[in-house]
Design brief:
Elements (H helix, E strand, L loop, with lengths): L4 H16 L1 H15 L14 H14 L8 H14 L5 H17 L5 H28 L1
Length: about 140
């Protein structure tokens, strides 16, 4: 099942403000994640110091290509392989998702309406499901 038309339209409409604030959003997301789920910090032991910038770029690329995810195939494969190498599991996705949405709300303030947050939540978990499925294959092959 794909994303709803409404979600695609909202993500596209908010892609620019999210991209313009992506580094602030991802920086705050990691702060929230580590505050609420300190056990996840170990997953980032070998992460580069600019990890928040990499995630910010990924969020921007996802929003910009929300209607054509095939363009992101190589990037998603690399992400899945990195997740498997670092021990990311399906149960980590909700922790990150909730933290990311909280950061979007904090950084964007009133612009992050309930409708916007619902669309980004759907988009995040849709992408998460794609990654989880690929990571399951990679874990099985390892």
């Amino acid at each position: 099942m794909g994303l709803t038309k409404e979600t695609v339209e909202i993500v596209k409409a908010t892609a620019k403000p999210v991209a313009e604030n992506a580094e602030a959003i991802t920086t705050r997301m990691y702060e929230i994640l580590f505050e609420n789920h300190p056990e996840t910090r170990a997953l980032f032991n070998d992460a580069p110091s600019d990890q928040h910038k990499k995630l910010a770029a990924a969020v921007g690329a996802y929003a910009a290509n929300i209607e054509n995810l095939d363009v992101l195939g190589d990037a998603l494969e690399k992400m899945a392989q990195t997740h498997v190498r670092t021990g990311v599991k399906p149960e980590h996705y909700p922790m990150v998702g909730v933290s990311l949405l909280a950061a979007v709300k904090e950084v964007l303030g009133d612009a992050a309406t309930d409708e916007v947050l619902a669309a980004w939540k759907e988009a995040y978990f849709f992408l998460g499901d794609l990654l989880i499925a690929r990571e399951k294959e990679l874990y099985a092959a390892a």
